[in-house]
UniProtKB/TrEMBL annotation, chain A:
This is ABC transporter permease. It comes from Actinoplanes couchii. The keyword S-adenosyl-L-methionine does not apply. Its main location: membrane. The keyword Membrane applies. It is found in: Cell membrane. The chain crosses the membrane at residues 25-44, 64-88, 95-114, 126-143, 150-169, 175-198, 205-223, 263-279, 310-329, 393-411. Keywords: Cell membrane, Membrane, Transmembrane, Transmembrane helix. InterPro entries: ABC_transp_permease. It is a multi-pass membrane protein.
UniProtKB/TrEMBL annotation, chain B:
This is Nucleoside ABC transporter membrane protein. The keyword Membrane applies. It is a multi-pass membrane protein. The chain crosses the membrane at residues 35-55, 120-138, 150-167, 173-194, 203-222, 254-272, 302-321, 374-399. It is found in: Cell membrane. It holds the Pfam family BPD_transp_2. The keyword Flavoprotein does not apply. It comes from Actinoplanes couchii. Keywords: Cell membrane, Membrane, Transmembrane, Transmembrane helix. CDD domains: TM_PBP1_transp_TpRbsC_like. InterPro entries: ABC_transp_permease.
TrEMBL record, chain C:
It comes from Actinoplanes couchii. Residues 25-263, 279-523 form the ABC transporter domain. The keyword Nucleotide-binding applies. Transmembrane segments: none annotated. Pfam families: ABC_tran. This is ABC transporter.
Length: 422, 420, 530
């Protein structure tokens, strides 16, 4: 065979675009940092910001002079951005981004907390609690999405789970019956989603949105027919107990948050790990990902594409239904109409912001949970900053993420497409 | 998986014995039109709704407790419950014969007789606009879940314009309406631009914008200058009378919005069918690659289309504020954007069908109010019915399967009777 | 059903232990219908162990449908698949694989974001047990390496598919089938995306596989390859077997069998009368979707009244070159001049409006809107201009009369101008595109793969139209991966390889020489080798 090919030709030079991704992000960070140092620093009252290591003002605390902290962390944000713009540490650009955002948030906190105190245990606990349904909902989304089924009906599954949990929990006077029924409620919605989108090939997003309205209607209807007139018989579910692991629960901050908690906390954390390793290390995961990326290829090696999609969507229904149980069996003691109030969509946001991975979704859910907790905290200390804007954060962050400003978010290739055998 | 053997693609020839009258009849009807499908979907939804009404009624359920002993008790009380519910629904939507009789007898006014129809049209008007918004976007291949947020923006801008400017009559209304359109258009423009520039999926971006606008509205109505003076709850000042959509007044809440809806529907129909922009929308919606190759700017079409769709939804919001609510509250837009989604699906994204779908939804809503107050059955029944209708519409094969099953069963019954 | 379940319980591959004689396959009376269309009409084929059995036929003849039934992706309406004398029913590829049949699809069935080892393991994963099946990645890797060594097919188990060139992806597909210990391998149009060199290598691999006792069904429409490798040839036309042949049969005879009548691949044309240059491309640089350099400094010139052909194996930058000229893809550097005015940076609409006609290579993807009527497709890029309308509205009556006229003129077979284009045959769809693009005064006409998936009759028609356009004084650019088409149409041929024009030759140049150029071997070095 001849070796005189022209493979070794060098490419003709063409100008590289200047605005690479790290440059854009770095510039954004620098701007944020300038805002933090300048605006937050000058607005912060000249008092100490105290972060106590307990659930209240007592005990040990980290404290920092408010304006100083705001400026310091703002400058750190600028530095992180600067490093990115300068093109240093290219491999660690994600780490720099996280650092930049973290320091920006800290600067913000120094401004807001100056003259007050922020109890870290309470904040962490609240963050985790608020993030719980988001984690579970986003994991449900991961299960569907990775096998190629878009699930925008997380909200509907939440509502159904919350409702079924309250109803059956009360009637059976058993929180466990309630929890199982919540899962069944989620599966019900997931089942309709699966049948309509996988078998009847209806657009997955359309079905999902219609199912949200359906769940809203049917839970609202039954609430007003059954629960409202007779709450005692139908709407006073027992609550999930909190368990305390002796020893571990005494670790500062982490202990009371993680080891003195209800079952859902451990379940959610366990599921994050289980789904991560399941997807990456098991036959089920490999096949699920194949079905989500290239269903025809999976079919030609004998994988039952639709069967696997059914399985995953229904599993997602279980997880989201349990996420719904959080609302009635953990957070409040009863069901009310439309009580999830868009949490399912924040879970969807967490799923996308977390790039369709379990760990990513977990991180995003925590971040969004923190934003919500912060909104509560700020209105408690009567901060002039309106809580509505903090509550917008998950949505805006996701908007920025999908717009590709923080690196393009790309879902599984076959996500949203029904599989039709040719 | 049994589902795989039953895909529509793998159609088995019907066995010869299946040529019963019922089956032939049904088969011919299927090929006939979509009207039948819609009708059957409504029937299915109504049946499921009836089941829900019965199972959620403690008294009737108690009678089912001794069903085997005296089935007539349970059945007659179920029937009574269902027929009351649905007849109240119809009367609430179209009119109460008793009131019409009273009108003829001179003991009631014509306004009272036409109140139900007026309610139907009042609820339908904003849905026409949001429905058209979703339908138009669909034709261009975009799923505008953001009609809700765009309607909210329409409410905000139209409402604020309505109580701020104090312009003379007609002009004030026109300015407020246009303001609503602009507000919605802006909220549609953003996802359109993001889609065109970065490929961000409009479903995701519009969902996010929906909640953003809702939070913004709930913040705005309690701000000084917006909040009604002397009020501590979340409600804005009232829209100036000159900026309100004219209405006969009294018990008749129907307003100019429904006339506007007819005109706009005609406009959208013209746009899709005869205009160059409509051609672009349809081409991009059917095959964006071919459209691009033929020199149509897909990006520009997306941006414009989303702005127009947003403007339509914004007009829906404006109609709501200027025609019905007259003041901003956090829930002023209700669910009109999401309902518009259902309306568009029901109308199969065709302008006039969407218009009539909106009328149907308006009727359901008006009837639902009456069910709630007269029969004591939750208004949410209407939401369930609406969602169910659309689910069935979206999956024609499912409806066919259900009715074929029933047809087969009834022929089976007939055959056994003949043998007996 | 019970039989199938038994088959499923056996891990794929284990059946080979039961089978001692090599695989002999018989297809008996296979018939497959899609609605009214009979895609396969009572097909009988026997594949003996150790032979290369070529299935020759035009695009759309029903070859792939037949093989999809053999591989369990489709189920025949009638007929039997018999393996070593035992009739089998394949409900899914799993059944086919466990019966010893593997397939390499024309469009590779590989997950782009998976590694080679993951792709090969998929569906037959090595696990360490557990309810979900904990993957044993080391064993999967070793299996890949073992098979790869055993058959002399080098693949890197850890590479991501999306980073591999097509030739390597094809090797992965073959290894994937071989790790499942199949004895009969179906290769569906395997050479469509390969250079002549890679094709040569593939043929060698096929030969060594048959030497090891495997049999191969080789689906193709390329006569030369069939003659080079096949032991037996079955020719399929319109779903039927029209004849069997031996490798000694002449190419002309095979071609006649394949298309049903003696065809001349020659295009009837007079000599060109080239005028002034109309299109001038200077130093054009274009990247593909992944940001990889696709066009790497191309200079070209197309003159009025001549056809400039661009030959090359698919994927060497032809697509990106044309898209850049049409404003569909950004140029990184260089200039494209039409009558001296630079087109770079102009919108596609402007470029089309300045007298350029364009037939895209992927008709159903880029050429027509299937849901639109024939009439609407005929004005797809002229809807907002006179005489059909203006930027605001479209004149429906003008659109209708235009459609009637073009349907007549271009012999488009359709029920009415209102028929959706998607219901037309490929040839007629292509005529709609060609008619549209030729229905305005042109300076430059660009046609990419103008006759791909088009029936023979339409090919002749379209070729004649192109020559007619040339004779009107239009500059014509024809891009095709079918060398015959380029040679037949072009007055000058530019050979493209890896984003560059290696040479511009006359159509009288020997085929072998052009073939070498397509493989990246320039004339001088090739001669030096001799």
């Amino acid at each position: 065979m001849s070796t005189a090919t022209v493979e070794d030709l060098t490419e003709v030079a063409a100008p590289e675009p200047f605005w690479s991704r790290p440059r854009k992000l770095g510039t954004a960070l620098i701007l944020l940092g300038v805002v933090a140092a300048g605006v937050f620093g000058s607005l912060a009252p000249g008092e100490d910001a105290r972060f106590t290591l307990s659930e209240n003002a007592e005990g040990a605390a980290l404290s920092i002079h408010g304006p100083f902290g705001a400026v310091l962390f703002g400058v750190l944000t600028v530095i992180a951005g600067g490093v990115m713009v300068a093109g240093l540490l290219k491999r660690r650009s994600n780490l720099l981004l996280v650092l930049g955002i973290l320091t920006f948030v800290l600067s913000f906190l120094c401004w807001q907390v100056a003259g007050h105190f922020m109890p870290l245990v309470d904040t962490t606990e609240g963050t985790l609690q608020l993030a719980l349904p988001l984690i579970l909902g986003a994991l449900a989304g991961v299960l569907g999405e990775r096998s190629g089924v878009v699930n925008v009906a997380i909200e509907g599954q939440f509502l159904m789970g919350a409702f079924a949990g309250a109803l059956v929990g009360t009637m059976a006077t058993s929180v466990w019956a309630g929890l199982i029924s919540a899962a069944v409620g989620g599966v019900l919605i997931a089942g309709i989603l699966a049948v309509l989108s996988i078998r009847y090939l209806v657009d997955q997003t359309v079905v999902g949105m219609v199912l949200n309205l359906f769940a809203l209607g049917i839970t609202g209807f039954l609430y007003e027919r059954l629960m409202q007139p007779d709450a005692q018989t139908y709407n006073q579910p027992p609550q999930l107990p909190e368990w305390r692991i002796p020893g571990l629960a005494d670790i500062p901050v982490v202990g009371p948050v993680l080891f003195e908690a209800n079952l859902l906390v451990w379940l959610a954390l366990g599921l994050v790990l289980a789904i991560h390793f399941g997807l990456t290390r098991t036959r089920w995961g490999l096949r699920t990902r194949a079905v989500g990326e290239h269903p025809t290829a999976a079919d030609t090696v004998g994988i039952r594409v639709r069967g696997l999609r059914y399985l995953n969507v229904l599993l997602g229904g279980v997880v989201a239904g349990i996420g719904g149980a959080y609302f009635t069996l953990v957070a409040t003691g009863s069901f009310t109409k439309n009580m999830t109030a868009g949490a399912g969509f924040i879970a969807l946001a967490a799923l996308i912001f977390g790039r369709f991975t379990p760990f990513g979704a977990f991180g995003a859910a925590l971040f969004f949970g923190f934003a919500q907790k912060l909104a509560f905290f700020l209105s408690a200390i009567e901060s002039p900053l309106p809580s509505q804007f903090l509550n917008m954060l998950p949505y805006l962050a996701t908007l920025v993420a999908v717009a590709g400003l923080v690196g393009r978010v790309r879902g599984p290739a076959a996500s949203g497409q029904p599989y039709i055998k040719s | 998986m049994t589902a795989e053997t039953q895909t529509p693609a793998v159609k088995k020839p019907e066995p010869a014995g299946d040529d019963s009258f019922m089956n032939v009849f049904l088969r011919n009807l299927w090929s006939a039109n979509n009207v039948l499908l819609t009708a059957l979907s409504v029937v299915l939804a109504v049946v499921i709704g009836a089941v829900l009404i019965v199972v959620s009624d403690a008294e009737v359920l108690a009678k089912f407790g001794y069903f085997t002993a005296r089935p007539s008790d349970a059945l007659s009380s179920s029937w009574e419950l269902i027929s009351t519910a649905y007849s109240e629904l119809l009367m609430g939507a179209f009119g109460d014969p008793a009131v019409f009789q009273a009108w003829f007898a001179g003991t009631a006014t014509w306004q009272q007789a036409f109140t139900p129809l007026s309610e139907t049209l009042t609820y339908a008007a904003p849905l026409v606009f949001t429905g058209l918004s979703v339908a138009l976007a669909f034709r261009g291949g975009l799923f505008n879940i953001g009609a809700q947020g765009q309607a909210v923006l329409g409410c905000i801008v139209a409402g604020v314009a309505g109580f701020s400017f104090g312009l003379p009559i007609v002009l004030n209304l026109a300015v407020a309406l246009v303001a609503g359109v602009i507000g919605g258009a802006l909220w549609g423009f953003i996802p359109g631009l993001l889609k065109a520039r970065t490929g961000a999926h409009e479903v995701i971006t519009t969902i996010m914008l929906n909640y953003t606008s809702a939070l913004f509205l709930s913040w705005l109505v309690i701000q000084k200058g917006v909040q009604a003076e002397g009020r501590s709850d979340a409600i804005s000042k009232t829209v100036a009378e000159s900026a309100q959509l004219p209405s006969p007044g009294g018990v008749l809440r129907v307003h100019l919005g429904i006339i506007l809806a007819v005109l706009v529907t005609a406009g959208v129909a013209w746009l899709l069918k005869r205009s160059a922009f409509g051609f672009e929308i349809r081409a991009v919606g059917a095959n964006p690659h071919a459209a691009r190759t033929a020199g149509i700017s897909v990006a520009r079409t997306y941006v414009l289309l989303m702005a127009v769709a947003g403007g339509l939804a914004g007009l829906g919001g404006a109609t709501q504020v200027l025609g019905t609510a007259h003041a901003l509250t956090p829930a002023v837009a209700g669910n009109i954007g999401f309902d518009g989604l259902l309306v568009a699906l029901l109308g199969r994204n065709r302008p006039w069908s969407t218009f009539f779908a909106a009328l149907l939804f308006g009727a359901l809503r008006a009837g639902g109010n009456r069910i709630q107050s007269f029969a004591g059955i939750s208004l949410e029944l209407v939401t369930v019915l609406q969602a169910l209708i659309v689910i069935f519409i979206a999956a024609p094969a499912l409806v066919k399967a259900i009715f074929r099953l029933r047809a087969a069963r009834s022929t089976g019954l007939g055959a056994s009777l003949a043998k007996g | 059903m019970a039989e199938r379940r038994l088959a499923l319980q056996r891990p794929p591959g284990s059946i080979t232990e039961l089978r001692e004689i090599p695989l002999k396959l018989e297809l008996r009376g296979i018939t497959k219908r899609f609605g009214d269309l009979v895609a396969n009409d009572h097909i009988d084929i026997t594949v003996e162990p150790g032979e290369v059995h070529a299935l020759l036929g035009e695009n759309g003849a029903g070859k792939s449908t037949l093989m999809n039934q053999l591989y369990g992706l489709l189920q025949p309406d009638e007929g039997q698949i018999v393996v070593n004398g035992e009739p089998l029913v394949f409900k899914s590829p799993r059944d086919a694989i466990s019966a010893g049949i593997g397939m390499v699809h024309q469009h590779f069935m590989l997950v782009p974001v998976f590694t080679v080892a993951e792709n090969i393991a998929l569906g037959a994963e090595e696990t360490r047990g557990g309810p979900l099946g904990w993957l044993d990645r080391r064993r999967s890797r070793r299996d890949v390496i073992d098979t790869s060594k055993k058959y002399g097919l080098p693949v890197d188990p850890d590479a991501l598919i999306e980073d591999l060139p097509v030739g390597a992806q094809q090797r992965v597909e073959i290894v994937k089938a071989l790790t499942r210990e199949v004895d009969l391998l179906i290769l569906d149009e395997p050479t469509a995306v390969l250079t002549p060199q890679e094709t040569e290598e593939l043929l060698t691999v096929m030969r060594s596989l048959t030497d090891m006792g495997k049999s191969i069904v080789f689906i193709t429409h390329k006569l030369k390859e069939v003659k080079a490798i096949a032991d037996r040839i079955t020719v399929v036309r319109r779903g039927k077997i029209v004849g069997t042949a031996s490798p000694d049969t002449s190419e002309d005879e095979l071609a006649a069998l394949m298309v049903g009548r003696a065809v001349s691949l020659e295009v009837q044309k007079g000599p060109a009368e080239p005028g002034d240059p109309i299109l001038k491309i200077d130093g054009l640089v274009v990247d593909d979707d992944r940001g990889v350099r696709a066009v790497d400094g191309v200079d070209l010139e197309a003159r009025a009244g001549e056809v400039l052909g661009i030959a090359g194996v698919q994927g060497n930058g032809q697509t990106e070159l044309v898209e850049a000229v049409m404003g569909l893809r950004a140029a990184r550097a260089g200039a494209v001049r039409l009558d001296g005015a630079d087109l770079v940076g102009l919108s596609t609409k402007k470029i089309l409006g300045s007298g350029v006609g364009y037939v895209p290579e992927d008709r159903s993807h880029d050429g027509v809107v299937k849901e639109f009527s024939v009439a609407e497709n005929l004005i797809l890029d002229m809807y907002d201009r006179a005489p059909f309308g203006n930027p605001i509205r479209i004149d429906g009556s003008k659109v209708g009369s235009n459609a009637t006229e073009r349907i007549e003129q271009f012999d488009i077979r359709c029920q009415s101008p209102a028929t959706p284009v998607g219901t037309l045959s490929g040839g007629n769809q292509q005529k709609v595109v060609v008619a549209r693009e030729m229905s305005r005064p042109l300076r430059l006409f660009i046609a990419s793969q103008p006759t791909r998936g088009v029936d023979v009759g339409s090919i002749e028609f379209i070729h004649n139209r192109i020559i007619h356009e040339r004779d009107q004084g239009t500059a014509v650019l024809v891009v095709s991966s079918e060398l015959d088409e380029v040679v037949g149409l072009a007055d000058r041929i530019a050979v493209m390889y890896r984003g560059r024009i290696l040479a511009i030759v006359s159509p009288d140049t020997p085929r072998e020489e052009i073939g070498l150029l397509m493989a990246g071997i320039t004339g001088a070095t090739a001669e030096g080798e001799k």
